[in-house]
Write a structure and sequence with these properties.
Strand content: under 5%
CATH topology: Four Helix Bundle (Hemerythrin (Met), subunit A)
Distance between the termini: 53 Å
Helix content: over 70%
Number of helices: 5
């Protein structure tokens, strides 16, 4: 009978050692691929403020969507005076959104400047994706504002009984489409930020 070495390791223990070795190797490989990911405080502070501002924009545009529904109903009933009044409310919110957009642009500038200081390729890519989506959100705000202005002009023309080729319903749908795009880009930016946070845990 073969004598067992005093350093004999049971089969179960061997399997556990192999298992932990694989886990450690996987973790090490992930850290290498991520390049010991870390985020500078300048980026963190700017993205936190940016997220708050972007959410304010989403909330304000969401409120506008409710008013637009009311405008559509008033237009169908040919109650143009009330429709113009409601349109003014939407334009006031549009002005507030523009103010928030200026604040968001300032935070995005800070994030962009701090981008090169982010360590870890995957984390940096996620950070860049968040910036890209918030920039896209701001681009949609330009079209959103333009569509609202056209809507207000058409309602004013109807109130004054002036001819117009544009349909209120079509313009409202265009504005609502921009609102959906704004929400979508904000959500994609938030997902990218969550992914970045996961990579640097």
């Amino acid at each position: 009978m073969e004598k067992k070495s005093k350093f004999y390791i049971p089969r179960r223990a061997k399997l556990l050692i192999v298992f932990f070795a694989v886990v450690v190797a996987s973790y090490s490989l992930t850290r290498i691929m991520n390049g010991s990911a870390s985020i500078p405080s300048e980026f963190q502070e700017a993205r936190e403020q940016g997220a708050i501002i972007a959410q304010n924009i989403v909330s304000l545009s969401g409120d506008s969507s409710k008013i637009l529904k009311r405008i559509s109903e008033l237009d169908k009933e040919k109650r143009y005076i009330e429709a113009v009044t409601e349109a003014k409310k939407v334009l006031e919110r549009s002005a507030a959104i523009r103010n928030e957009a200026v604040k968001l642009a300032a935070e995005l500038e800070k994030m962009t400047k701090a981008l090169d200081s982010i360590k870890g390729g995957k984390a940096k890519n996620a950070a860049l994706e968040s910036i890209t989506n918030w920039v896209a959100l701001m681009n949609r705000l330009v079209d959103y504002s333009a569509s609202l202005s056209r809507l207000s002009e058409v309602l004013q023309a109807r109130f004054e009984n002036r001819p117009t080729d544009q349909q209120v319903g079509v313009l409202i749908e265009q504005v609502n489409a921009e609102i959906r795009s704004i929400n979508n880009f904000n959500e994609q930016a938030r997902q990218a930020i969550r992914r970045m946070d996961f990579l640097v845990r």
